[in-house]
Design brief:
- This protein is α+β, with helices and mostly antiparallel strands.
- The chain is built from 4 helices and 5 strands; from the N terminus they run E-E-H-E-H-E-E-H-H.
- The chain has a 3-stranded antiparallel beta sheet, sandwiched between helices. It has a two-stranded antiparallel sheet with strand order 4-5.
């Protein structure tokens, strides 16, 4: 005997969950009521084990047919890119601080470290200006 389900889908046709008729509700109508109550503003589709298998294989259901899941590409914003560059620069500064302190404690000249430290900010500004 084939299982029957009510599938709850998001707006991209991706399955959020499945309600098994006879377990989550005695009838298809009862399962649909649960789906509408617990998952408002979603799409509800009924089907059997074959559809469940498709969803388990990461397929999406759009316009009455299954398609391969296409992950959404999230573009990083300029603000995110700037924050990443600032973190990189800060990591470089931290490394130089260690070298500076070591050289200073040994009585060695530190002018080269000071120059590199200043160059980090110059490079950071240049990289930020190059962002699109």
């Amino acid at each position: 005997m084939e299982n029957r389900y009510v599938f709850i889908l998001d707006d991209k046709g991706t399955r959020i969950t499945s309600l098994l008729i006879g377990v989550h509700g005695e009838t298809e109508e009862a399962c649909l009521e649960v789906a509408k109550r617990d998952y408002p503003n979603h799409t509800y589709v009924t089907g059997g084990d074959d559809m469940q298998s498709q969803f388990i294989d990461y397929k999406c259901y759009i316009d009455g047919k299954f398609i391969d899941y296409v992950p959404e590409v999230i573009e990083t914003t300029k603000k995110d890119k700037i924050e990443a560059l600032k973190k990189e620069a800060e990591a470089e500064r931290e490394k130089l601080k260690e070298v500076f302190l070591t050289k200073q404690m040994k009585g060695l000249p530190t002018d080269d470290i000071k120059t590199q430290f200043k160059q980090i900010d110059v490079d950071l500004i240049k990289k930020i200006r190059e962002l699109k």
